[in-house]
Amino acid sequence: MAKAKLDHKVESPALIEDFYRQMLLIRHFEEKCNFAYRQGKVGGYMHVYIGMEATAVGINHALRPGWDYVMAAYRDHPQPLLMGADPVSVMAEIMGRKGGLSKGKGGSMHIYDIERGFFGGWGIVGGHTALGTGLAFAAKYRGEDRVTVCYLGDGAANAGVFFEVMNMASLWDLPIIYVIENNEFAMGTRLEYHASDTELWKRGLPFGIESERIDGMDVLQVAKDAARIVERVRSTSRPCVLEVMNYRFAGHGAADNDRRLYRTAEEEEAAYQRDPLPRLERVMLETNAMTREKMEAIDEEIKAQVDKIYEAADAIPFPDPAEVYADVYTDMEPEKGH
Ligand SMILES: Cc1ncc(C[n+]2csc(CCOP(=O)(O)OP(=O)(O)O)c2C)c(N)n1
Ligand SMILES: [Mg+2]
């Protein structure tokens, strides 16, 4: 996907269109992933990003392509798409095919694109914040002005390791942004049941880290805030805790078929009113940035593009079983007895 150039005047109609296309690509891509899962074409766990698109799109826009680092937990399909990976290689990974970004051996939760600065794709809740902090440490140690964005969930914000690494990041002035995506749920446990203080942005304060909370459903606002924060982190080499308020429209993972056990239809309906896509559409209509006809045409175009991505990925074979150990361990080879 073409990435908009680093022009932070988000009022520009071309940039708004780019944001719209990026959010639509993620939405349709994720819907197609759900379809693939139901067809039995996805092994293991899979978690989609439907409803949360504005967060990754707005934050990605503030980053320097091919330079800054990004790390995510297991809700990791949107980041490589936004960072310029071939979408077929993302879909192929999710479907366990040879042409996948992790050669079909990682699956949905373990997608990496190191060349573009995307470091996964991790399933241990909260554990990856230590790895993300290591990336920021490495950049600083090498004297590079890279910013690391480490996404984590509201549930992950309770993990002990997160408190340890916030301490290190502040102590060592690491250029990292911990983006806490508060989608109000950790699996089937709502925020109020798992967090003693539901204002998660405050997690950074005891460590002297600049911390704030923003609306994650408004892509233009996220882009503006992210631009300001990334710039600050890059120039000061000080960490940031950024709580982004969004909502997980789908179940926790593709196998979560019973959301009514933990949330009501009314609550979901209220959340859908905050949907970042219609929200941007309203802005575009009000400002005459785009007509309804053009929006519909773009929507059709992206749906067709995603159909092709799926078909192309589905045509790729599975990895050769003889290569099961290849690229899995760095120093071990099967013939040497492992
Ligand atoms: C250390 C650890 N504990 C428990 C789990 C099981 N688990 C998987 S996802 C999840 C919830 C995480 O919620 P959150 O951090 O809010 O992320 P979200 O799914 O909302 O993006 C849990 C408890 C795990 N994967 N790792
Ligand atoms: Mg959550």
Protein described:
It is built from eleven helices and seven strands. The protein has one domain (16-315): Thiamin diphosphate (ThDP)-binding fold, Pyr/PP domains (Rossmann fold), CATH 3.40.50.970. By secondary structure, the chain is an alpha/beta fold. The relative contact order is 0.16. The strands form two sheets. A five-stranded parallel β-sheet has the order 1-2-3-7-6, sandwiched between helices. The chain has a two-stranded antiparallel sheet with strand order 4-5. It has helices at 13-38, 53-61, 78-82, 87-94, 128-141, 160-171, 191-194, 219-236, 265-272, 276-286, 292-314, and strands at residues 69-71, 148-153, 176-182, 185-186, 189-190, 210-215, 240-245. The protein binds thiamine diphosphate and magnesium ion. Thiamine diphosphate is lined by residues 75, 123-125, 153-156, 183, 185-187, 248, 252.
**Major beta-sheet overview:** 5 strands, parallel
Bound molecules: thiamine diphosphate, magnesium ion
- The proportion of residues in beta strands is 5-15%
Using the 3D structure, state the CATH architecture.
Answer: 3-Layer(aba) Sandwich
> Shape from CA axes?
globular
CATH topology (level 3) name: Rossmann fold
Helix content: 40-55%
Oligomeric state of this protein: single chain
The tally of domains stands at 1
Structural class per helix/strand content? alpha/beta
Number of beta strands: 7
The CA-CA distance between the termini, in Å, is 40 Å
Q: Give me the strand/helix succession.
A: HHEHHHEHEEEHEHEHHH
Tally of alpha and pi helices? 11
